[in-house]
Amino acid sequence: MRLDRTLSRNAVRQLLTEHAEYGGWELQRLRRYRDGTREVWIRRKVVRARATVPGS
């Protein structure tokens, strides 16, 4: 996802927080360019299922 340079740091933080809380995403990488634009890589959060042993 490419973010415009006019977005403040707080606006970017809020956007990423909403994606994490409501969409199940996590930040993988954030890259900031000299012109002020940001490129953000997000990925789905991996939820690992644990095997349960009956009778324990």
Name the poorly predicted regions: none
Shape: elongated
Which sequence of SSEs, written as H and E, runs from N to C? Answer: EHEE
Q: Which strand-content bin applies to the residues?
A: 25-35%
**Which sheet architecture does the biggest sheet show?**
3 strands, antiparallel
Arithmetic mean pLDDT:
86
What percent of residues adopt helix (DSSP H or I)? Answer: 25-40%
Q: Using DSSP, what is the number of strands? A: 3
**CA-based gyration radius:** 17 Å
Q: Look at the helices and sheets and give the structural class.
A: alpha+beta
Q: What distance separates the N and C termini? A: 46 Å
List key phrases describing it:
single chain; 56 residues; alpha+beta; three-stranded antiparallel β-sheet; 1 helix; elongated
3D architecture notes:
This protein is α+β, with helices and mostly antiparallel strands and 56 residues long. Helices cover 27% and strands 30% of the residues. It is built from one helix and three strands. Strand 2 and strand 3 (38-44) form a beta hairpin. The longest helix is centred in the first third of the chain and has 15 residues, at 9-23. The model has no long low-confidence stretch (mean pLDDT 86).
